[in-house]
Design brief:
Layout lengths: L4 H4 L6 E6 L4 E7 L5 H16 L5 H13 L5 E7 L2 E13 L4 E10 L9 H15 L3 E6 L6 H9 L16
Parallel strand pairs: 5-6
Antiparallel strand pairs: 1-2, 2-3, 3-4, 4-5
Helix pairs in contact: 2-3
Length: 175
């Protein structure tokens, strides 16, 4: 089957309340809307500075974020909320796998503010994405990349059952 990924994701699967067992904290995970753009921009600016020591151009970033909302075939943003406050985000994009005749979800642009780290926020977001992947027969798995020096994030991903043993990522960028 060579269908589009977004056909399978219906709105009933795009919002869940997940409780972190060790913290007994409820995090609502939902697909982001255009109302979330200010938080998404803020989080992406902070993440780039924190993880790569770069200051993103706000105009380019703003256009990039808005482009995703205009064309969901490029990907989707998800946010975590607690008591109405946005406390984390991630983006998923799509990779077609001819080997698997299906789509691999890539998790990107993950950010959880310092004051909310260690409380299961990313775990709740990851479990939300994983539940969507398990429920959709066209989704074959989940991948992400992480900076080689970001050891705390790598430990989180390993605890969630992901492994970094199979592939190395190489890149070339115009800018």
């Amino acid at each position: 089957m060579c269908g589009r990924v977004d056909v399978k994701f219906n709105s009933s699967k795009r919002q869940h309340i997940l409780t972190s067992a060790h913290q007994h904290v409820k995090h609502m995970i939902r697909e982001a809307t255009i109302k979330d753009i200010p938080n998404l921009l803020d989080f992406q600016l902070k993440m780039a500075l924190e993880t790569e020591k770069i200051t993103l151009d706000i105009s380019t970033l703003s256009q990039g974020v808005q482009c995703l909302f205009k064309d969901p075939s490029k990907g989707r943003y998800y946010v975590a909320e607690e008591n109405g406050e946005t406390i984390g985000c991630l983006m998923t994009t799509y990779e077609w796998s001819d080997w698997r005749n299906g789509t691999i979800l890539w998790i990107q642009s993950v950010y959880v503010p310092n004051e909310h780290r260690g409380k299961g926020v990313y775990k709740a977001m990851y479990n939300f994405i994983k539940q969507m992947a398990v429920a959709d027969p066209d989704i074959m798995g989940i991948r992400l990349y992480v900076d080689k020096t970001n050891h705390p994030a790598q430990q989180v991903y390993k605890k969630l059952g992901m492994n970094g043993e199979h592939y190395a990522t190489f890149e070339w960028m115009k800018k």
